[in-house]
Amino acid sequence: MSDMTKTPPTVRGVRAYMQREVLTLPNFITMMRICCVVGMFAEAKRPVLVLVLAFAAWLSDGVDGFVAKKFGSCTKLGARLDQYADWSFGVALLYTIFVAEHFTWYNAPLLLLIGGYLLLRMRYLAVETTEVAKLKTFVQFLGGVVILGGHAFETGLLLVIGYLIVGSSLPLMFKSLRSYGSQEK
Question: What residue intervals traverse the membrane (predicted)?
Fold first, then answer.
């Protein structure tokens, strides 16, 4: 049964809600990251293009939150959209690295561990992202972009540096999962 005393939303009210909660600059930046992710999947065999898209996505990950806080346009939708964009960007990084390296013996354990983390993180979608998780994400995304740079420019040194950066995020992964588990209790 519906509540008949409640007035239906007006066009002006819907428009105001859309401008305040949905059509914000931070949400637009986050949606651009999702577009970069789609491009990464679509062009996975073009390493230079994938690197450009990944770099743009990595930069946008920090910019959207900064802009939201700076201009007071933080929204629940934006926070959730950012989580999904981060998750999809992580999957795109793993996928494009797999495509570039053909899933070799030296990257398989690390990439499988990060993939497992992404799956575990889905369990905690309702909890707030912690500071340690944000740092972990920043480090892993940076490492992934550096690895893709190694493939785009065919430079082994960048591959090594990228894997070292990603490897350095492992303690942060475990800390962030613990922090999510403690929030859920």
Answer: 48-67, 104-120, 141-166
Average pLDDT of span 83-105: 86
Q: What is the DSSP string of 2-14?
A: --TTSPPPPHHHH
CATH number at residue 72: 1.20.120
Residue type, 183: Q
Reduced to 3 states (helix: H, G, I; strand: E, B; else coil), residue 155 is: coil
For the entire predicted model, the pTM comes to 0.82
Domain presence at residue 160: yes
Q: What would the pLDDT profile of 4-43 be if each residue is shown by its tens digit?
A: 566 667 777 767 767 777 778 899 999 999 999 999 999 9
Residue 67's Cα: distance from chain center in Å?
Answer: 16
Q: What are phi and psi of 7, to 5 degrees?
A: -80, 145
Q: What is the DSSP string of 32-83?
A: HHHHHHHHHHHTTT-HHHHHHHHHHHHHHHHHHHHHHHHTT---HHHHHHHH
Domain containing 107 equals: 11-184
In a domain, 6, yes or no: no
2 within a domain of the structure (yes/no): no
